[in-house]
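Deviation from plan, reported transparently: nicotinamide-adenine-dinucleotide complex.
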Amino acid sequence: MATGRTHRPATRSRGIPEATVARLPLYLRALTALSERSVPTVSSEELAAAAGVNSAKLRKDFSYLGSYGTRGVGYDVEYLVYQISRELGLTQDWPVVIVGIGNLGAALANYGGFASRGFRVAALIDADPAMAGKPVAGIPVQHTDELEQIIGDNGVSIGVIATPAGAAQQVCDRLVAAGVTSILNFAPTVLTVPDGVDVRKVDLSIELQILAFHEQRKAGEETGQVGPEAMEGPEDTAPASPARPTATATDRKGPDGDVPAVMPA
Ligand SMILES: NC(=O)c1ccc[n+]([C@@H]2O[C@H](COP(=O)([O-])OP(=O)(O)OC[C@H]3O[C@@H](n4cnc5c(N)ncnc54)[C@H](O)[C@@H]3O)[C@@H](O)[C@H]2O)c1
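Because the crystal trials were delayed, the predicted structure below was used instead.
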């Protein structure tokens, strides 16, 4: 059984704050779209709007990368794509295993966006013996008995858990013992991991609950019924909008120090 949990400093050793790291994928997504349209340069304002981030924050974030843009020209799109990809470690191939190949695991396995971002699905693992050998997204499912062997053979450091909640901790422990040091957890449970292991969790129902909160607030504003929380100031009363995220992943740390992986779009 794993003991301890992940504790990451707010600033990484190379001096890039976690909040900046959490925004880099948003910039990369916006920049990739520009690159696909062969747009050579972009201003901080344009890129900030496309990424849904405040432009002053964007300039500050890019200063950590040593990227300041050129006055009157803006940022070189291709170079920024390269710089951010390098910073995020995406210039190398990352083998990933998915454990739990039910509805969600199969959908993740079929998602083409992993491969295009440098994440190769090295193996699909499930505890159901009836699934062993059956192809999902062209990859034969392997039984959990082989988990340790698969991790070792493929040098896997990132594991995705899509099992029922009751199995997730045990799966996590086995992944970590086999050498996995980063876990993306879709199961609705809090995982305990040793120091040095990063856990990010994705829970779409939590995101929906946050949207429901804002919907309720907007409805209250329309009818003039403003709740006590709306008296706390403009920062707290503004509804979530794509152009103005209300929280970054690192702002919403879970009780165990793991971090929701879904960012405001
Ligand atoms: N985070 C989200 O937004 C989100 C969305 C949907 C589902 N979920 C969660 O994802 C998980 C999977 O959901 P689903 O609908 O795909 O369920 P599912 O029942 O279709 O699939 C679960 C799979 O896990 C396998 N499994 C069970 N125990 C295992 C173990 N110890 N080792 C390996 N495999 C094991 C089962 O054989 C099955 O194939 C659930 O925990 C669910 O709550 C999360």
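The longest strand covers residues 119-126. We consider this an acceptable substitute for the interim report.
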